[in-house]
Amino acid sequence: MSLYLDDAQRQEIQRMRASMRWRSEWPTWLLIAGVYGGWFGVALNAQALGMPLALGALALLSCWYMSLQHELLHGHPTRSPLVNALFGIAPLAVWFPYAVYRESHLRHHDDDHLTDPARDPESYFVSPERWASAGPTMRLLLALRNTLVGRVLLGPAFSIAGALRGVAVAVARGDVRVAASWALHLVLLAALVYWLEHRCGIRWFAFMFGVGYPALALGAVRSFHEHRAVADAPQRTVINEAGWFWRLLFLNNNYHAVHHDLPGVPWFALGTVYHRRREAYAERTGRFVVQGYGEWLKRFALAMVAPVVHPFAGHKVPAARVTRIRDTFARPTANDASNRLAG
Predict the structure, then answer these.
(1) Which of 174, 195, 223 is at the close of a domain?
(2) What values do phi and psi take at 221, rounded to 5?
(3) Does residue 2 fall inside a structural domain?
(4) Is residue 108 part of a domain?
(5) According to the model, what pLDDT value does residue 313 have?
(6) Over the chain, what is the mean pLDDT?
(7) How far from the centroid of its chain's Cα atoms is residue 133's Cα?
(8) Same domain, 264 and 178
(9) Domain end: 181, 202, 223, which one?
(10) How far is CA 84 from CA 25, 74, 77, 185, 202, in A?
(11) From residue 135, how far is each of 38, 139, 193, 194 by CA, in Å?
């Protein structure tokens, strides 16, 4: 569902939708060619490039591919989920089947329950019950995961473990669709690993842990504190005014509040939509606006960005406590009092 700031914005986006750029989606087609061409081009020339450089380039391209998968599942560049899936099922980023990611991510777009660990599959909060049952080591790891360094280093391991746990539960309850998605993914992954080893000289462990894991780590930079736990749903999602490199790598998903309001807007139009209404979006998000990922690095490299336990998931919260939580998660930065960041 699209949530417009007002009727004027709705009409403006309808005009943009009628443009040849939007109707043809040629930037997304060019992106598909660039991602696949770059990935396989690097793989085929891995020996000539040298393995460290090749693995680094493949990790970067695999992260870009995950951004492309995100675009595909949101209905671009075609209206056909099947056609889009054909461009997203290749296991270039190793760890997750496209179909499983698609289903999970679309559930994440239920903004009324955003960040609630019981409802939001992409929440980095945990329930009070999970915290209470965790041992000292797990509590430490969960706390470290809420720092930027910890999210990059440990976040992929948590995601992989969660995916494996999820498929085990799905198979145990007889979920044929999930089992079929994983079966297809594993067959394609085996074929890709065989090709990489015998044609490109890239061993399976180098691909999985020298490409797949670093790609997830790069993606964790984007997802670090994309959402905060506050009472007002529109104020839960960040606007990150990142530099051009990160915008291209993440396909403008740094303008995350705009994406959640307007999930049908293609990646190449998100920046335009945001900058035409920059102040309005700042107001809508409760000034949850960040001046690039370096802001998170300076503040939260080794400091927790948020509590591990969700402040009020699944509970009716007294108004006074909601105000305290909102204020805690909306302190102004030292260098820009107009931008409030979650503390």
Answers:
(1) 223
(2) -65, -45
(3) no
(4) yes
(5) 56
(6) 90
(7) 28
(8) no
(9) 223
(10) 13, 9, 7, 16, 28
(11) 44, 6, 37, 40
Same domain membership, residue 260 and residue 187? no
Residues above pLDDT 90, as percent of the chain: 85
Q: Are residues 49 and 196 in the same domain?
A: yes
Listed in sequence order, the residues at least 6 apart from 249 whose beta carbon sits closer than 8 Å to its beta carbon are 60, 63, 64, 67, 218
pLDDT value of position 166: 87
Please give the pLDDT value at position 109.
92
Confidence bin at 342 (pLDDT 50/70/90): very low
Integer-rounded Cα radius of gyration of the chain: 20
pLDDT greater than 90 at residue 270: yes
> Where do runs of H (alpha helix) occur along the chain?
7-17, 20-24, 26-44, 46-49, 51-73, 81-86, 98-108, 128-133, 136-145, 148-172, 176-195, 204-207, 213-223, 244-249, 256-261, 267-276, 278-284, 293-300, 319-328
The answer to whether residues 147 and 271 belong to one domain is no
- Mean pLDDT over residues 115-125, rounded? 93
- Domain extent, residue 242, equals 233-341
DSSP structure string for 296-335: HHHHHSSS-SS-SB-SSTTSPPPHHHHHHHHHHT-EEPSS
| DSSP letter assigned to residue 244 | H
* 38 shares its domain with 134: yes
User: Among all chains, which residue has been given the structure tokens 């403008």?
Assistant: 252
Picking from 222, 117, 112, the residue whose alpha carbon sits closest to that of residue 162 is 117
The two tokens of residue 334 are: 């030292």
Average pLDDT over residues 8-14: 96
pLDDT at 215 over 80: yes
Residue 158 CA to residue 147 CA, distance in Å, equals 14
CB neighbour burial string for 195-209, b if at least 16 within 10 angstroms, e if fewer: ebeeebebeeebbee
Quick one: what percent of the chain has pLDDT higher than 70?
91
Global pTM reads 0.88
In which band, very low, low, confident or very high, does the pLDDT at 312 lie, cut at 50, 70 and 90? Answer: confident
Residue 13 falls within a domain, yes or no?
no
